[in-house]
Amino acid sequence: MARQASSSPVKKKAAPKATVTQMLTTPGSGGRRAFVSRATKETRIAAAINLDGTGKYDIKTGIGFLDHMLEQLSRHSLIDITLRAEGDLHIDYHHTTEDSGIVLGECLTKALGDRAGIRRYGAAHIPMDETLTEVALDASNRPYLIWKVDFSKPKLGTMDTELFKEWFQAFAQLGGLTLHVWNHYGDNNHHIVESCFKGLARALRVAVEIDPRQTTAVPSTKGVL
């Protein structure tokens, strides 16, 4: 006698869950693009950028204020940024903040390539109500940070204000930037840090643009950056 087929439904295997370090993309096509993922025992972060974008962003770090600042960076630099991060936020925000700067800095370096054709230098003064911040940078591949920014309180919401220097330090180091950030004055800590990120964005926008007068030349008498 032939065996009857089972009437029990066949269980389908669940699709594998997406991980933070899987490939991310930015909108559209073309442009100078890069993708970087980084996984440690403390964080898992992936980011994609397009230097020639329109300032579109899709950012989730698990830290609301950091998301807000990175969105400002994208919008005002016109660099498209997609970023996902998972970190040990049960400890504090340090590792996720610093490592997001590392990954975005690596993306910048990768997207710039040999840095031929870029304007190289950029600077901005950003007024924000009672606050004024100056940012100047050289995309020289010689990382250095000067940070002249003081806060009147140790926290902004749940985020330690000292972590903003850590982010800028990581971004400058891995992005190959000589970066000077100087808050001339200000009372509101939110305004102070936001003006720093907006200043970086505007200076970066100029520095990484292709100079139409030297589209293939490296902007250095050395011939290399």
UniProtKB/TrEMBL annotation:
InterPro entries (alphabetical): IGPD_sf (IPR038494), ImidazoleglycerolP_deHydtase (IPR000807), ImidazoleglycerP_deHydtase_CS (IPR020565), Ribosomal_Su5_D2-typ_SF (IPR020568)
GO process terms (BP): L-histidine biosynthetic process
Compartment list: Cytoplasm
NCBIfam families xrefs: PRK00951.1-5, PRK00951.2-1, PRK00951.2-4
Protein keywords: Amino-acid biosynthesis, Cytoplasm, Histidine biosynthesis, Lyase
Family under the similarity heading: Belongs to the imidazoleglycerol-phosphate dehydratase family.
Name of the protein described by the UniProt record: Imidazoleglycerol-phosphate dehydratase
Pfam annotation, one family: IGPD
SUPFAM superfamilies reported for this sequence: Ribosomal protein S5 domain 2-like
